[in-house]
What we know:
The complex is a heterodimer of chains A (about 120) and B (about 110). By secondary structure, chain A is an all-beta fold. Helices cover about 0% and strands about 55% of the residues of chain A. Chain B is an all-beta fold. Helices cover about 0% and strands about 55% of the residues of chain B. Chain B has no helices and 11 strands. In chain B, the strands form 2 sheets. In chain B, strands 2, 4, 5, 9, 10 and 11 form a 6-stranded mixed sheet that branches. Chain B has a 5-stranded antiparallel sheet with strand order 1-3-8-7-6, with no helix packed on it. In chain B, a hairpin with a 2-residue loop joins strand 6 and strand 7 (about 60-65). The radius of gyration of chain B is 14 Å and the shape is globular.
Amino acid sequence: DAGVIQSPRHEVTEMGQEVTLRCKPISGHDYLFWYRQTMMRGLELLIYFNNNVPIDDSGMPEDRFSAKMPNASFSTLKIQPSEPRDSAVYFCASSIDGPSGGNEQFFGPGTRLTVL
Amino acid sequence: KQEVTQIPAALSVPEGENLVLNCSFTDSAIYNLQWFRQDPGKGLTSLLLIQSSQREQTSGRLNASLDKSSGRSTLYIAASQPGDSATYLCATFRPGGYQKVTFGIGTKLQVIP
């Protein structure tokens, strides 16, 4: 398996623009996680899905953020409108089971977002 | 609210030295704890996962221990190598509510040849 795939790897946009980040989890993994990493706050869980259904979005910072998982092999994280403080590295991860399980999470390479 | 602290924030050691990285957490009601490494500009690579019922896990030169009652975990790296240079993060996984998954800020390790 190619592992968790994320695109784009880098995104530079201007404030107010819509940004869409994409993720393809490892085949057979029922759980998908979106994280954000900044120097100030470290890694934060934004939202996670089980079998394409959002289970916990309590980490999503604002209504400007939304995530979808239309099928088992694809998820998007959208920011509309984007702001400079959204600049961060966004990671997608997948696992066989959820936070209570005994299986590891596998991370994608991340998308480095810069909002000017 | 779970807080995960990693000490030290940075560590520089000569090659071949054995070393210990520390992780402490405030809420002991965890399902499991996972150690990751992160190389500059890269994603996270899982190293070891310890379930709440376990005391330790080993993989090659790595050994991770868990003491839930005291809210501590350690990652022991034996015979360190320059290739071990990376940032090491620990994360706790808890039931219910906000912050199901909480990461520490990490320990940046440099192994000097």
